[in-house]
Fold this sequence. Notes:
Bound molecules: adenosine-5'-diphosphate, magnesium ion
Number of strands: 10
Helix content: 25-40%
Structural class: alpha/beta
Order of helices and strands: EEEHEEHEHHHEHEHEE
Shape: globular
Amino acid sequence: MDTILTSEKLDRSYTIGKTTLxxxxxxxxxxxxxxxxxxxxxSGSGKxxxxxxxxxxxxxxxxxxxxxxxxxxxxxxxxxxxxxAENVGYVFQAFHLLPxxxxxxxxxxxxxxxxxxxxxxxxxxxxxxxxxxxxERIGHRPQELSGGEQQRVAIARALMNDPDIIFCDEPTGNxxxxxxxxxxxxxxxxxxxxxxxxxxVTHSQEVASRCSxxxxxxxxxxx
Length: 223
Ligand code: ADP
Ligand code: MG
């Protein structure tokens, strides 16, 4: 199986005043193309920090991240931003949709930055929304939707640019368990049908066990 993402000995700490908190202490990881990987850990164990570093959003203090053979943190900032937009999708716990845009515009947004023709982007956004069961809600704004529906919009947005890899940070953390399950059904259906690679962090064993491989983040390292 081909490796799509590798991290070598990632270190990341936060310094506030005189105290330094070492969150990641040498995290090495290989992610295979097409797999669904969960990283579990208790609250505060560094899951979000790790996902940000793996996803090209946050410079590690030490170590390296290679994505499709390229050293992510050796790229210039603009190049890394473009690389992220083309290759990576993100789903966050708190949805992060823009309230002033309707849901089609929210989903189409990543393509706008890519200079895709507006009509094409909207058509694709509508198709993706239909695939997450929101075909009837076209034209609505995020705040008119339930939490579960908003997260399905966020999933559609993450898939907009047909990324190789999708990172999910506690994607059902703000949802009740029944709603969360339905959201995960959509997520896994889409990811598996398109053979995207998925890296999902969660504190929930139930959520983690839906992935093909499970790792655990503890005391700053993966076990
Ligand atoms: P998790 O996602 O597993 O709950 P985080 O990665 O968010 O954990 O945080 C790990 C630790 O780092 C926590 O103790 C948290 O308080 C701390 N932390 C996270 N972000 C910052 C920051 N920007 N500044 C200082 N401390 C932070
Ligand atoms: Mg977190």
